[in-house]
Design goal:
Oligomer: single chain
Strand order of the largest sheet: 1-2
Largest sheet: 2 strands, antiparallel
Order of helices and strands: EEHHHHHHHHHH
Number of strands: 2
């Protein structure tokens, strides 16, 4: 066949040039001879792609750079929020997903809330700037604990990411190889969060206790937020892509059954 067709004989929606034929033994156009191919095909749908990651990172990046160069907290907050709203408007005009822009706006809002609380409690401008970094540290701490726990109990979060795309949140757990791969991917996903906490938390606590000068701590936290933000996350995702590109783990049983697809009847009953 020269063209990809859906069950009604029509071309599937989406990018026509990327359409591929759905043969038996494939899911979403990806070969399911290996677990890596199964997870890779579903993971690509759950992540926001390059644009989503940039949209999530740019507002925070702008805040940090503006604060480090101007030391004007309100200017930094307004600038980061303005660029996030601009990105949101572009998404709305294009009628595409606004998820990652909204995530950025939510992060800015939480940071602004912590800054406001610090200001109302009589904190200095340096204290307020430190307060802006606290939600990120708390988030990464909680995220690290939760993801590590899911791996330790044998239900890695990455498996549920696959399940959320396929419509069956637990079908992936029927295959040991899928569980093993999803555990490895989850550890890779959580590694940047653990690294951020290990670096940023001691600096923040040192500044609050007076062991580190506040301005120096803010500069370190600002640089760390840039360096350990999307660059480290991209490195982790690159490692995940590499792991998924190896195609070494055979699928046990029916791929559709593993992923909870509609075409998951037992072959022995046919």
């Amino acid at each position: 066949m020269s063209e990809a067709r859906d069950r009604d004989g029509r071309e599937p929606a989406g990018d026509r040039e990327d359409a591929v034929e759905h043969e038996p033994g494939s899911i979403g156009g990806a070969s399911v001879d290996t677990v890596e191919a199964v997870v890779r095909s579903q993971l690509s749908k759950a992540l926001g792609g390059r644009r989503g990651m940039i949209e999530a990172a740019v507002p925070t990046l702008l805040f940090t750079v503006t604060w480090l160069t101007t030391r004007e907290l309100r200017t930094a907050l307004v600038a980061s929020l303005a660029v996030a709203i601009a990105l949101l408007v572009v998404r709305v005009v294009q009628r595409s997903s606004v998820q990652f822009v909204l995530n950025a706006i939510f992060g800015i809002g939480i940071g602004w809330l912590f800054v406001t609380i610090s200001a109302r409690s009589g904190g200095s401008e340096s204290d307020q700037a430190l307060a802006y970094f606290l939600p990120g540290i708390l988030y990464n701490t909680g995220y690290s604990i939760i993801l590590a726990f899911t791996c330790l109990i044998g239900w890695p979060l990455m498996g549920f990411m696959v399940g959320s795309v396929t419509g069956d949140p637990t079908a992936w757990h029927r295959d040991r190889q899928v569980v093993k791969l999803c555990s490895l991917l989850t550890w890779v996903l959580v590694a940047p969060c653990i690294l951020r906490v290990a670096v940023q938390a001691p600096v923040w606590l040192g500044a609050k206790s007076g062991a580190i000068e506040a301005d120096a701590a803010i500069a370190v936290l600002g640089v760390a937020k840039i360096v350990m933000g999307w660059p480290v996350q991209l490195a982790a995702l690159a490692l995940m892509v590499w792991l998924l590109a190896r195609n070494r783990t055979p699928v046990q049983g029916e791929p559709a059954a593993v992923l909870g697809g509609d075409d998951a009847p037992d072959r022995e009953s046919r």
